Every structure is written in structure tokens, then in C-alpha cells.
Amino acid sequence: MAHKLIILGAGESGIGAALLGKQQGYEVFVSDGGTIKDNYKQELAVNQISFEEGHHSWDIILGSDEIVKSPGIPEKSELMKKVREKGIPVISEIELAYRFSKGKKIIAITGSNGKSTTTALTYHIFKTAGLDVAMVGNIGVSYARQVATAPAEYYVIEVSSFQLDDIREFKPDVAILLNITPDHLDRYEYKMENYVASKFRIAMNQTKEDYFVYCMDDPEIMQHLSQQPIYSTSIPFTIMKPLKAGGFVDKGQMHLKVDEDPVIVSIYDLALKGKHNLYNSMAAGIAGKTMDIRNEKIRESLTSFKSLEHRMEYVASIRGVDFINDSKATNVNSVWFALESIEKPIVLIMGGVDKGNDYGAIRDLVREKVKAIICLGVDNRPIQEALSKDTATMVNTSNMRDAVQAALRLANKGDVVLLSPACASFDLFKNYEDRGRQFKEAVKEL
After folding, report:
1. Which helix (H) or strand (E) holds 433?
2. What is the DSSP letter of 353?
């Protein structure tokens, strides 16, 4: 009998899992409670994979041997309760992909902020070194799709806590934990310790031969490590003090000491600016060192990297005002990093679907740097209530063009207009990419 594999959710990770399952001889069925995108439906049809959309056929699902669950489906849902009662094994797409890519080198990156940047930078280092590497996970192509269609020797994977919740054997050779700040607490019974434990699952299967690379300036990480030891070889990084081993900054130089031959780069030469990017650069550089990439290749990569679309992406200067697209900032902490890295006066465009945000974290920076806030959302009350006292001007808008035009009116020469929403985008946009692209189009029309 063929192994019956049910995929719940037909986003990029679900489709990737379906393609890989089919390729490996499983009997695959895809079920999505919402609508499936046309291009994905075509792919399923071409590969002769059965699917349903708009509902879940419980009898089929509960008759499966194994379920791959989309990271977006909460455990609280009626369907998942039934699945758990029945005791059907549930895994995430990265677990399935790992099953069929053992023996390859895996660098997995998680954290509340900076994952995408660090993943892209690590990939850039491996690529520059001439390695056969793929960049997968939350940053584009799913890991399972890559394993099914174009397997590589090295995988650099951006993983979320939701994906880590359903791993069994997944074991990266290098696990990077950048930071842990409150995000998605609605999925973790509003308990920070549950969210922290979830992030630490990235190292749960590691042994002494593997590396755990972590930020020792993060209080949540350090508290967890003091209570629960890690079995892998730990490599810390910090900007607070020099270390005997690990990543650190000293007298304007970044040092990466993993072996007898450290990489040393002036922080002024790094391609990515801002304090938070020192952490991202150290993490990526250390990953390169653990895989024996030559120092000059790491140095060259760290100084030549181009940042990602929708992440502090420079769009244009109009009448001496710089426009920056940081649409990927979907939580308050990301906005803190954005504000922290800009030296000029800021007109901030923010808003969207609020996940119970605590705007207190950015209040000081708003007071110090933000001359006006332009709210862009269906319900702007939470932002108004939290921040109206901290900035001189607050404007309400409900579409991108109005927001951008209002921003230009309020900005003077030498200012920065920053789209850094702190919220999800689903009230007015398809996703954060759509929001970022609309911002860029509206800027070009000015």
C-alpha cells in the first residue's frame, strides 16, 4: 500500500511538499480550506496530484498515514483537534524535505527579526565561495520544492517557529538563532516561554558535530540557555565585548573567531549598515567559517552584499527626500531596527492588521526621530492611541497613493519617508510584497 500523505494548506510550502511526496511515491492529496492560486492548481494538475479547495474532507484527511501541515494552520482549529485525537503523525514541510536530503549540509536560520537578511547574506557567502547552494524556506522557494526539483549540496533555510513546531528528526549542521522578541504570541497561549521553546527546537536534534550559533546579547536566549543546555558546539556573537571564540566587535572591527585564523573586517566596510545588521553579518560570517569557506571569500561577501527587496530598500529621492521601502517589517521590533538605523528626520508610514502589538517599544525612537506618522490601514486606532502623543503630526489614509502623497507634503529636504508598517498587510493588500510594490509605484508617480 502506498503511504497516504495529506497536505493541509496549498501555499508555497504545501505545493512543495506535494511535489516531493509525489516524486517519492507517496499517495498525495492536497486540501485547502481557502482558495488555491491558479498557478499552484496548474502545477498540481500537471503532476496529477488530487486536491480540494474551499473545504476540508475530514474523512479523507482522518484516513491518512501522515499529514504535512501548513505553518499557517493553528492547533486550536477544529480539524487539528480531530487529527490529534486520532493520533495521525503531523509534520512540517521542512521535516518532509529533510527526510529526503540527508547527507547534505544544512544551515537553518531562525529568530524574530533579521532572518531573511541573514539567510540571503549566508547564501551570498556560499555562492561567492563557489558552492552548490540553494536558498529556501520562508524566503522564496520552499525547501521541499527545491529537494524535489533541483537538489543542492548545501541548503540555507529560513525557518519560522511554526515550522519548527512540527519537526521530528530535522537536524541542521548549523543552527542560527538571531534573537527572540514577542511575536505571534497568539499562537503560543500568550506565553513567551512557549515561543522561546519553539525557537530552540532548531537545535533539539543536534549533536557535538553540529554548530549552534546564537546572539549572547539577547536576554531571552541567554535565560533559556542557562536553564537548558545545548548539545551542539556553541558559537556566540556579541557587540558588547571581545570574546576568546565567536563573533564580536572591537575598536570598529568585526572579528569572527571559529578557528586559529579569524576573519577581521572593518565595520565601516560592511555592506549592511545599522547595529542590527552587525548581528546579521556576524551570524552569516560564522556560518561560512564553520563550513571552511576561505576568509577572503567571507570578507568579500560581507562587503559586497545587496540588501533584499522590501527590507530597508532604497526606492528614490524626490526633492531631496529619500523614500525607503521596509514593507517586510510586520512587527514592532522590525520597526525599531529600521528607526534605529536611520539618522535623518523620518516621516513614518505604518499600520495594517495589528497582532496585539505593543507600540511602547518604539515610543522613545518615535519621539526622537519621527516628525509625522501616516497611518495606513482599515483600523488605525491602536496606533493613534499608542503614539499620538509622541509625534507632532498624525494623518489617516486608507490607500497607498494617499499615504505617499501625504508623506511628501510633510517631509522636508533631507528627511526620509519610511514605509515600515509594524503590522500584517491583509486589510488592504495581498501580502507585504504587494504592499511594498504599491509603495514603489506610488513613489514613482510623484
Report:
1. helix 432-445
2. B
Give the C-alpha separation, 367 to 389, whole Å.
9
> DSSP string covering 300-340, please?
HHHHHPPPPTTSSEEEEEETTEEEEE-TT--SHHHHHHHHH
Between CA 72 and CA 200 the distance in angstroms is 19
Instruction: Write out the three cell numbers for 2.
Output: 502506498
Q: What pLDDT sits at residue 343? A: 80
Which residues touch 168 (CB under 8 Å, ≥6 apart)? 89, 91, 95
Tell me the H-state helices in 228-294.
Answer: 275-290
Q: Look at residue 68 and give its three-state secondary structure.
A: strand
Q: Which residues pair with 27 in a beta bridge?
A: 4
Dihedral of the alpha carbons of 229, 242, 156, 106, in degrees to the nearest 10:
-40
Q: Which of 157, 129, 105 is nearest to 263 (CA)?
A: 129
DSSP string, 139-170: TSS-HHHHHHHS--SEEEEE--HHHHHT-SS-
Question: In whole angstroms, what is the distance from residue 167 CA to residue 79 CA?
Answer: 19
Backbone angles phi and psi of 258, in degrees to 5: -115, -30
Per-residue pLDDT of 279-336, as tens digits, reads 999 999 999 999 999 999 999 999 998 777 788 888 889 999 999 999 999 988 889 8
pLDDT band at 49 (very low <50, low <70, confident <90, very high): very high
Report CA-CA distances (Å) from 388 to 18, 166, 338, 410: 48, 41, 19, 16
Grid cell of 37 as nine digits: 492560486
CB 150 within 8 A of CB 134: yes
Could you tell me if 366 and 390 are in contact, meaning their C-beta atoms sit under 8 angstroms apart? yes
Q: Kindly tell me if the per-residue pLDDT of 188 is higher than 80.
A: no
30 CB-near residues (< 8 Å, 6+ apart): 6, 7, 10, 14, 15, 18, 36, 44, 49, 50, 51, 52
How many Cβ atoms are within 10 Å of 441's Cβ, its own excluded? 13
Give residue for cell 486540501: 31
Which phi-psi region, left, alpha or beta, contains residue 213 (left: φ > 0; alpha: ψ -120 to 50)?
Answer: beta
What is the pTM for the complete model shown?
A: 0.76
Q: Is 53 helix (H, G, I), strand (E, B) or coil?
A: strand
What's the DSSP call for residue 435? H
**Of the candidates 337, 363, 357, the residue with the CA atom closest to the CA atom of residue 423:** 357
Opening angle at CA 116, ends 440 and 159, nearest 5: 135
Q: Is the dihedral of CA 379, 380, 386, 388 positive or negative?
A: negative
